[in-house]
Amino acid sequence: MPSGPLRRSIWCVALALLLAGCAGFPAVVAPPKPAAEKVAPVAPPRPAEASLEAAERLSRETRTRLDATEGLLRPLDGKALPPEQTETYATVQGLLAKAKDALQRRDLQGAAALAEKAHLLAGELAAALLACCAELPAAVAPPKPGAEKAAPVAPVLSPDVSPEAAERLSRETRARLDATEGLLRPLDGKALPPAQAETYSTIQSFLAKAREALERQDLQRAATLADKAHILARELVETRH
């Protein structure tokens, strides 16, 4: 093999040829990464603020209704009421207490239903007391001892009510009582939750007192009691569904 300068020239030529051959090879290219699959857009969750606002609004409305009911009862605090109205007053106070307790437990639907029922009864109680006080006579003479049995009592109505109107009111009251008993019939003998059992007992009491008022021909009182019983019975049946 040649030596010296000739050998260096040969190595230079070989190196040049090698570099020239390598220049023609393609560069190694990394395989492209597979394109990421497109993810379907996800709907944003419903904001919790909407349900919180609805709950707050219901709570605020219920408290307003409770305050309004207590305002209706305030003129009656400490007053001597007739027995039937005393019972209604106690029922309203019981409903108010239960509604406030439900609010404390955040049972907003239950609180709203109780507050509505209490307000309805309180409004009817206030209206009945106004009508009663407007028609009370100034004084009633006590019956003489040994007096003979009085004749049948005329219907207790305003003087301008005709006998036909009194008969119609009596008939409508009896129909309302029958309808209320029809609403309660499916519940007879059933085991009810405590709140519904109390309402059921109150309705039965109203029905009994309404029929007693009809026997005494106290038609206005009988009609009022029949309406109260029917309203409570309808609400009781609706809560059972």
Description:
There is one protein chain. The protein is mostly helical and 241 residues long. It is built from 7 helices and no strands. α4 runs antiparallel to α7, α5 runs antiparallel to α6 and α5 runs parallel beside α7. 20% of the residues are buried. About 9% of the residues have low confidence.
Radius of gyration: 43 Å
Number of strands: 0
Total helices: the number is 7
Strand content: under 5%
- Distance from N terminus to C terminus (CA atoms, Å) equals 112 Å
Q: SSE string, helix = H, strand = E?
A: HHHHHHH
Content-based structural category: mainly alpha
The main pleated sheet reads as: none
Q: What helical percentage do the residues reach?
A: 55-70%
- The pLDDT mean sits at 74
In the predicted model, the low-confidence regions spanning at least 5 consecutive residues are: 134-154
Described by the principal axes of the CA atoms, the overall outline is elongated
Question: What would the keywords be for this entry?
Answer:
mainly alpha
Summarize the structure.
The chain is mostly helical and 241 residues long.
Write the layout of secondary structure elements.
Elements: H1 5-23, H2 48-73, H3 83-104, H4 108-135, H5 163-184, H6 194-215, H7 219-240
Helix pairs in contact: 2-3, 2-4, 3-4, 4-7, 5-6, 5-7, 6-7
